[in-house]
Amino acid sequence: MSFSTKNTKVLRVVRSALAVGLLSAGAMAQAADLTIGVILPLSGPIAAQGISTTKGIKAGIEYQDTVKGHKIKMIQLDDASNPSLSTRNAHKLISQDNVDVLIGTGGVPGAMAMATVSRESKTPMVSFTPIGLGGDKAEWVVTTAQSGETMVSAVVDEMKRNGVKSVGYIGFADAWGDVAFAALKKFSAEAGIKVVADERYARADSSVAAQVLKVMAAKPDAVLGGGAGTPGALPYIGLHDRGYKGAIYGTHAILSPEFVKLVGDAGEGLIVPTGPALVGDQLPASNPSKAIIDDYRKAYKAANGEEPYDVFSAYAFDAWLVVTKAAERVPADIQPGTEAYRLALRDAIKTTKALPATEGVFTYSPASSFGDAKDSVVIVKLQKGKWLLQH
């Protein structure tokens, strides 16, 4: 055998060894990825929200795509605004894709369905929907959205500052309408404000004329709308059409560009509570969320080619932020893709303390899914189609 032939055989052996080594290294790197399963309503009735949250997730990836040497792998599925599909997708992400954490989804029913799977499978979950869980049900789940109680409490504080003595209510005839009204009753009683009317309507209704007339007959100083999204515009349009001259208030559930377009002149002067992200450019430098909102806006523009325009993308960005900042505190010797990592990540999320995010400062605990307090809430007023910060 010639020297040339020997060299050729040796070279083949070296190449084979290198190929095996590279494949092994690649497999190890893949196994060490932090895998995040994201479920969004990209189709169906609340698809507009899903599109916004997709952009927020993209901004999150732009902001941070590695954690302690682990590349972040994101798997995204559409639940078509259907809670049954939310459940099915969550099971798939956990059993087939071996995700380390879940993020999602739009709409309380879908998010609650995901939370059940999260708890049963012992997989941490961060939602961007206001799901209020306590006790054992909250052990594996947190949300970046504010509770209805927190937001309505802030609204009632604003009513008191503005001298409101009586208030009427027009809200959804469903769980969200009940949550908002219960909070209104509780906090208005503490503030010395009398609730003089409670009227309800279905999300699919096209008119609330009868409800508006009943509320106006009670002659309240102000009216609080307890709707959400574009259907939440109906009470304000009805009040405007019938010449109501009192103050109008709402909750954070109506903060979407679509709502602003639909409500038009009827929304002029509407006062609403929100997290800081919506008016980030109007915040003083002393606001603890100011710096991360600036980072979010830069990441959003880099990822989506436009400026952020709504709150839903901010909630989703915050979910990504909560996961990545918690992952930074997981011990280095615990590897993603394992039961130990999921437990450690859950513990890190639940022990998050004073984390500045775009929607407030988050501090979580094992006993609750909510993480921000009323001091993170800001009040905005709708004037000429723009939300303006009220100091």
UniProtKB/TrEMBL annotation:
Q: Supply the PANTHER family for this chain.
A: BLR7848 PROTEIN (PTHR30483:SF38), LEUCINE-SPECIFIC-BINDING PROTEIN (PTHR30483)
Key words of the record: Signal
Question: Which superkingdom?
Answer: Bacteria
CDD domains, alphabetized: PBP1_ABC_RPA1789-like
Q: Which segment of the chain is annotated as a signal peptide?
A: 1-31
Q: Which residues form the Leucine-binding protein domain?
A: 34-363
Show the InterPro entries listed in the entry: BCAA_transport, Leu-bd, Peripla_BP_I
Q: Does the keyword Membrane apply?
A: no
Question: Which residues are listed as membrane-spanning?
Answer: none
Assigned protein family: Belongs to the leucine-binding protein family.
What is the protein name stated in its UniProt record? Amino acid/amide ABC transporter substrate-binding protein (HAAT family)
